[in-house]
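Feature request disguised as a bug: please show the residue count (211) next to TetR/AcrR family transcriptional regulator in the output. Example input:
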Amino acid sequence: MANYQSNRRSTQEKHRARRAAILDAATDVMRREGVAACSVRRIAKAAGVSPSVIHYYFADAQEIVDFGYASITDRYFARLEAVRGTFSDPAADFWHLIAAYTEPWNAHPRMTLLWSEYYTMSGNNHRTSGIVESYQRTIDLFANFLAPIEEGRYVGRAQAVWRHLTGTIDSRLAIPIGLDEIFAELALVIGIPAPAADTVRCSVRACGCKG
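Example output, currently without the count:
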């Protein structure tokens, strides 16, 4: 019985390790070549396995892409959460978050293309749960940073922040916009005075939140 349980644990560990290795390979393909390149055959080649092995561990390429995209966004959100508490003033913390949220998209235009490809693939496959989860996670993040400001007065405007920044980021490749303009527009949308963008930009670089 003990040997059976030990063998079972060993099999489960190998299963998890193989699955994780496939996801790592898929995430690497996604970063370098884009979501559109993430076919089962391409992922199998990157992982050094046959397509049949991919199908053993995952239903299809969309499932792998969902997990891979979630892994990328997990790291991104961890950096954003690290902004909390940088300033004693919660309003300053909020603007610091906005800078940390938008600057990587400007520094790495590939992020916008990656999101657009993921959005398109998920929509075409009628499997949008990953998109909805990503949107809601962003709204919740903004709400959490708005909550301490004037006893939650602005928390209900988190969705407006998300809508404005989503449009700004999606159009940034065609219509570039600076952080100072983003701050000015967002201040009008939510009613919280914005600091000078340069002061926040410097603090973002200092804390290593960019990129």
